Amino acid sequence: MITSVRTRFAPSPTGFIHLGNIRSALYSWAFARKHQGTFILRIEDTDLKRSTEAATQAIFDGMKWLGIDFDEGPYYQMRRIDRYREVVKQMLHQGLAYRCYMSTEQLDALRMQQRAAGLKPRYDGTWRPKPGQLLSTPPAGVQPVIRFNNPLTGTVVWDDAVKGRIEISNHELDDLIIARSDGTPTYNFCVVVDDLDMEITHVIRGDDHLNNTPRQINILRALGGTPPIYGHLPTVLNEQGEKLSKRNGAMSVSWYRDEGYLPEAILNYLARLGWAHGDAEIFSREQFVEWFDLEHLGKSPARHDDSKLKWLNKYYLKKTDNSRLAALVLPMLITLNVNSTQEVPLDGVVSLLKDRSNTVREIARDAVIFYQAPAPSAQEIQQYLTDSVRLALAKFIEALSEIPWTKTAISEVLGVVLRAYTLKLPQLAMPVRLLAVGAKHTPSIDAVLYLLGRETVLKRLRVALS
To answer: Could you say which DSSP state residue 343 is in?
Structure first.
């Protein structure tokens, strides 16, 4: 049994948060919950030009909607600048870091020379202190960057919870800049200080961070820390096999909420987007936490499947209480300028429509016909309301005015009239639909008429006979 688990989700608020991003939060949250640990939210907002309050709020909203609650935070890196500068000062004092006066132009020229020689472009350690060797006099008026004294020999080794054992030679790593010339700390350095201060035990994140890991491990060890267990999740691909991103069709978490996906469907879908528990396809939040482990995280890229997500959402719609769905449908109807009066109970409409819908928005779209006056065209009426059907409709109206108002009674009367006039169901049901709700396609006609109510139905159907 793992004890004292501390995980974190550390997004950058530089754009909307999509399913690939929030998956890392879900897995980190589930692992902490599984082991009665601590889940921390950290906002990595050091990119001042691109970070926005709107993007930060979208992170909070998306996590709250999905029920991914955090125990500590949110911590903001920009509010920890003094702590980072303190550590930089400490590293300079201990010889773990040094001042580098190489200008951007000089570094660019160096890299061009290296590429021309067929070498990997990298900083060459010009200003790195060397035993028994004096450094050049710093150029006047140049503010230095601070670089980490990366080990020159050996390898960085870690057992990745997803990818297995990974070894990177220190020869492949140059001396990372940990503070810019204006004194602001860099991303990789801030991450290390945060993980060390927050005592993070497990880092579950996308494999786009894989190249950062050996650098972060070296800095962390230099500061006397023990590296956490890393698990780098393979990239989520779109349906065309490209990396899921804003440019490649990724939609924000808020888009799925606004389109009428249920949070439990999204959570279930995300859980299976890179992790599996046998053949289980559908499971609750509680089951997911109970089952979740790092051993069954997928090693290959997962592919987003919109049809699979819709299938899951449809399943959860069917299982969801009608009153809850009605509360979600109502604001969507309002945006459609529909006044859902109490004459037709919205709970009843939802109950009728949810089994045939993929999203809450589809329910709202199909519910409109119950709250607006039908307006079939004269051409449609002429097409479907033939003389024989008109006689049957008159008999149907007469019967509807006398029967108990139940779906069963309506259905029975419909059958009696069809047999009496030797008609098939569509021949009578189609004009009744058009006259009652103005649509050719609806759920079962008896259920539709029952919801509309006797008075409304009779009033609308009699228009055709006047």
So the answer is: T
pLDDT at 438 over 80: yes
DSSP-derived letter for residue 296 is T
User: How crowded is residue 94: how many other Cβ atoms within 10 Å of its Cβ?
Assistant: 11
Q: Is 246 annotated as a binding residue?
A: yes
Mean pLDDT (the chain, rounded)? 93
Pairing between strand 202-206 and 229-233? parallel
**Residue 27 and residue 220 in contact, taking contact as beta carbons nearer than 8 Å:** no
pLDDT in tens, 118-129: 888 888 888 999
| Cα torsion through 78, 79, 82, 83, rounded to 10 | -100
**Of 74, 66, 24, residue with least CA distance to 233:** 24
Task: With H, G, I as helix, E, B as strand and everything else as coil, classify residue 380.
Answer: helix
Structure tokens at 164: 């297995």
Q: Is the pLDDT of residue 1 over 80?
A: no
Q: DSSP class of residue 207?
A: G
DSSP 405-466: SSHHHHHHHHHHHHHHTT--HHHHHHHHHHHHHS-S--S-HHHHHHHH-HHHHHHHHHGGG-
Q: Is 316 helix (H, G, I), strand (E, B) or coil?
A: helix
Q: What is the torsion angle, in degrees rounded to the nearest 10, for the CA atoms of residue 199, residue 203, residue 205 and residue 207? A: 120
Structural domains for the chain: 6-77+187-236 (3.40.50.620), 82-156+168-179 (3.90.800.10), 246-318 (1.10.1160.10), 322-367 (1.10.8), 378-465 (1.10.10.350)
The pLDDT score that the predictor gives to residue 246 is 65
